[in-house]
């Protein structure tokens, strides 16, 4: 468990689906992902002068190389705040652990004055879809039970709710019903946050905010039946978690930069 020393409001930044490669010029669907991530981080610096923590919610790397994770570590270190990572379907845990050794990056439970962050692994090795294994469901249930006094943000890579895109909804959390059942057993969950879908969404269900966030590289077209790349720019989400359990949040995207994208590719 990692403790964050914060004021009444916990100020987070979420970046997701960075898809970094070992080579600095590495790309996803034609977009150079290290460059696009750095463009996003530039606007984070401009817009969010005070950050208590940064969450990187999976698919950190495209090629699974140690060097890709080193790029991420090096890019985020100047922010001077704790940074927490977890796995997406493209990630290689051994490479992640090699770079994250002796850092806070892989802590699964983070607690502050009024909030706890429960960061789970939805990766199924060798698969694009996700599943929360029993040990992850147990971690979720235990953390929520231990501190019913803390407002809770739960995060993992894959989406637990349908996004309205047939191809995307085939590769979400396969045991979402089990995950949501744990969440419904407790009254201290305020937010469920994910990546994977390369698009923004925000809905309120039974008092819980369910949110996805744009990728720092290419975006996927919402409500598309087949794989489709959107024209929207890379972005990030900021979240201010307030002492009373309320959440202020928004998405910002890079402006004024033309990114190269290969729209002819039919998968990633």
TrEMBL record:
Belongs to the cyclic nucleotide phosphodiesterase class-III family. InterPro entries: Calcineurin-like_PHP, CNP_phosphodiesterase-III, GpdQ/CpdA-like, Metallo-depent_PP-like. GO terms for molecular function: 3',5'-cyclic-AMP phosphodiesterase activity; metal ion binding. Keywords: Hydrolase, Iron, Metal-binding. This is 3',5'-cyclic-AMP phosphodiesterase. Residues 10-199 form the Calcineurin-like phosphoesterase domain. SUPFAM superfamilies: Metallo-dependent phosphatases. It is an enzyme of class 3 (hydrolase). The keyword Metal-binding applies. It comes from the Bacteria. Its EC number is 3.1.4.53. Pfam families: Metallophos.
């Amino acid at each position: 468990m990692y403790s964050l020393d914060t004021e009444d409001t916990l100020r987070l930044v979420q970046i997701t689906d960075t898809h970094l490669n070992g080579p600095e010029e590495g790309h996803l669907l034609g977009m150079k992902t290290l460059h696009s991530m750095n463009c996003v981080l530039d606007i984070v610096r401009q817009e969010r002068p005070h950050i208590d923590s940064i969450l990187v919610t999976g698919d950190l790397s495209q090629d699974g190389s140690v060097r890709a994770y080193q790029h991420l570590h090096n890019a985020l270190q100047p922010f001077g705040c704790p940074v927490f990572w977890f796995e997406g379907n493209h990630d290689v845990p051994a490479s992640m652990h090699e770079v994250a050794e002796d850092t806070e990056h892989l802590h699964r439970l983070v607690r502050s004055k009024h909030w706890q962050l429960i960061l789970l692994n939805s990766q199924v090795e060798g698969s694009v879809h996700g599943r929360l294994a029993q040990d992850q469901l147990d971690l979720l249930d235990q953390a929520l039970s231990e501190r019913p006094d803390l407002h809770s943000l739960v995060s993992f890579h894959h989406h637990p709710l349908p996004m309205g895109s047939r191809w995307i909804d085939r590769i979400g959390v396969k045991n979402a019903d089990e995950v949501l059942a744990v969440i419904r057993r407790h009254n201290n969950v305020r937010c469920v946050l994910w990546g994977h879908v390369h698009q923004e969404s925000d809905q309120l269900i039974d008092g819980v905010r369910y949110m996805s966030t744009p990728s720092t590289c290419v975006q996927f077209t919402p409500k598309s039946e087949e794989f489709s790349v959107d024209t929207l720019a890379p972005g990030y989400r900021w979240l201010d978690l307030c002492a009373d359990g309320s959440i202020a949040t928004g998405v910002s995207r890079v402006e004024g930069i033309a990114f190269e994208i290969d729209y002819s590719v039919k998968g990633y």
